[in-house]
Amino acid sequence: MQPIIIVLIILVVLVFIALIKTIQVIPQASAAIVERFGRYTRTLNAGLNIVVPFIDSIRNRIDLREQVVPFPPQPVITQDNLVVNIDTVIYYQVTDARAATYEVASYIQAIEQLTVTTLRNIIGGMDLERTLTSREEINAALRGVLDEATGKWGIRVNRVELKAIEPPTSIQDSMEKQMRADRDKRAAILTAEGIRQSQILTAEGEKQSAILRAEGEAKAAALRAEGEAQAVRTVFEAIHAGDPDQKLLSYQYLQMLPKIAEGDANKLWIVPSEIGDALKGLSGAFGNLGGGVPGFNTGGNGGNGGNGGNGGNGAGTHGSIPAPAMERREEPPVS
Q1: Average pLDDT over residues 165-191
Q2: Contact 82, 130 (CB under 8 A)
Q3: How far apart, in whole angstroms, are the C-alpha atoms of residue 112 and residue 159?
Q4: Sequence ranges of the domains in the chain
Q5: How much is the pTM?
Q6: Has domain 67-167 been given CATH number 3.30.479.30?
Q7: Cys-Cys link to 53, which of 21, 99, 144, 300 (CB 3.0-4.6 A)?
Q8: Measured between alpha carbons, how far is 44 from 24 in angstroms, rounded to an integer?
Q9: pLDDT tops 70 at residue 257
């Protein structure tokens, strides 16, 4: 009985193993390569699949989802002979499990090496400045080359990104100095423009102020001149309305003589020729006034005597009115 039981147990175990090998469950977004006696037979898709146990074998299970693979920094030489380290990230997806299994030994390694060589070819035709500012161009070129090369491997490259571009330390220092110099230059230019604009505005303000001041002074002068003209017109009209004679004018001439002689620095002053006529008119006026007083005689033309200014005095003395005598009384001293 025991040998039969052992055989039965062995048969149950073999049946169980056969069932396990017969039923294959493939997860969603995955695929499996089935080989029969070492030769490709078919590709198992997602779901429940049945294979021949002990004859069919699953060679490889492949994830059909999009994969993200970062590659380590790679040294690349630019056109101006500078070594830069570039980190890349590849987004790819397996579209054909059979090709990805049999067309290339390791598609991950193949994509990495193809990315490095393509990147060196692209960067080798650019200088450092263009490399740092042309990431989109480099990404598009990499994607085009990789997508074309990996198509026969059953792989589609969706995106290629440059994660970092690191120039040498000396170049970084030079770039920082250049950026600092550019910032200082822009700051100096902005400061100079601000000062220039301020000076322009100040000059414009001073110009406008001078114009307004000049206009104000002109208007004030015009109003002052208009007022003086009005005053002269008023005086002129008043004089003509009063109808002055020669006697009044002569008297006004004599009143102005002291004002002409004012001032300590006046060493020489000129008497207008009209003064003589004024004196004649004034003497005639006093002569007429004196003719009505008994004993008053103007002395004729004594004012025009031989000694000029003293002639008037001689005539005045000749025709002066005698003053009454004044008595002086002295009080006797008190004893």
Answers
A1: 85
A2: no
A3: 14
A4: 7-62, 67-167
A5: 0.50
A6: yes
A7: 21
A8: 9
A9: no
